[in-house]
Amino acid sequence: MAEAILNARLGERYQAYSAGSHPTGFVHPLAIKALAEIGIRHQGSSKHVDEFRGQSFDYVITLCDPAADECPVWLGRGKRMHMPFPDPAKVTGTDNEQLAAFREVRDGIATQISELLAE
Questions:
Q1: Residue 87 maps to which CATH number?
Q2: What is the pTM assigned to this prediction?
C-alpha cells in the first residue's frame, strides 16, 4: 500500500518501490480494496527486496511490525527510517474486521509517510 499511496500522492517528486523479505507473490485483495476506497488504483506487484539490491535510493523506509521476527535489512545507499505498522494480512476475524485493519494501516501510511516526505 505504501508504494501505491506515495506514487499517487507524491509521484511528481518521488518514485516509490515496495518489497519485502517474504513476498506472497500477489497483492492482498483487501489492500487493493482499501486503496480503491481512497481513489488509488494499485498497479504494483509483490516483490522481493533482492530485486533492488545494488540500487541507490534517497530514502529507505521500513514499515515492519515491531513484533515481527524479521525486517529486511537494506545494505545499499539511502537514508534509512523505520515506521512500525502491524501486518494487516495477519488479522483474523470477520471480513469487516480484516478490512478495518487494512484501512487503519492505509491511513497511517498515508498520514505519516506523506507528511515526512512532504517536508
A1: 3.40.50.2300
A2: 0.85
